């Protein structure tokens, strides 16, 4: 007879497309726990059937996390083992679960992570992006103005070298083209992006391109816009050895040739990439220096 699982909340990663990706440990734990707290019980029931688990299901979604946490705590205090799963991937990664984990930990009860599928990490692993650091942003805002503001903020930080890392985003298929256009506007056309679509599924596609070409590639075939996406923007260092030096070099040439500031900034953006506001600030500084030298 199998020994009883130790009472704990087992935070369990589940497949993001291919059922074969469930880990041996996740399978065992899901079969042995008393309860499975699931983001959507209708979604998780077939997975449990598939692996032969007869654990009871308990709803734990973003609208009932506090109440679900209290129910889970009560089960744990009665000596039961509870698994926490989301619809796909790792719970609490752009998914509900973090509040439940926080409450269970605050109650002094054990939380055990079961590592496994995670779309962002799978995309990064197959992206070929060599940046030593990366930031997982999750979903960008859906509304156009908020999206542009969030990207402008990130681009400005990256330009200041405050954020010298690759950036990882989740995106929905109906927003993919608009988001890539907005990214080009914020980061410039030379920054490289990797579009990782339908990972571990039939139409898995991993496409790398400069931002200037990415939207055109997506628009060339509507099939390319379907499914689930992870977007990875490469770190600025990968585009040029030192983007600030490169933009300064280009700006110097254009300003000394007498081009108006606005035009010099626009052309520099085309040539060296970069954030419009940061380039403006850089151009103003250079122009002041040049004026002082001339005058
Ligand atoms: N917790 C999940 C994880 O660990 O991967 C992420 C959940 S989040 C609600 C769903 C988003 O993850 C999708 O909109 C998409 O951006 C990304 N995603 C999930 N499955 C994917 C897949 N098979 N291929 C590409 N992206 C995926």
Q: How would you explain this protein's 3D organization?
A:
The strands form two sheets. The chain has a five-stranded parallel sheet with strand order 3-2-4-1-5, sandwiched between helices. It has a five-stranded mixed sheet with strand order 6-7-10-8-9. The protein is of the alpha/beta class. The mean pLDDT is 92. The chain is 46% helix and 17% strand. Strand 2, helix 2 and strand 3 form a beta-alpha-beta unit. The site of S-adenosylmethionine has 23 residues, from strand 7, strand 8 and strand 10. Residues 16-17, 86, 88-90, 93-95, 118-119, 170-172, 196-201, 228-230 line the site of S-adenosylmethionine.
Condensed summary:
With 295 residues, the chain is α/β, with parallel strands linked by helices. The chain contains 12 helices and 10 strands. Bound molecules: S-adenosylmethionine (SAM).
Q: What is the overall shape?
A: elongated
| Major beta sheet, strand line-up | 3-2-4-1-5
The first-to-last residue Cα distance is: 91 Å
Q: What small-molecule ligands were found?
A: S-adenosylmethionine
**Beta fraction of the residues?**
15-25%
The total beta strand count reads: 10
Q: Compute the number of helices.
A: 12
Oligomer: single chain
Q: Over all CA atoms, what is the radius of gyration?
A: 24 Å
Biggest sheet, in brief?
5 strands, parallel
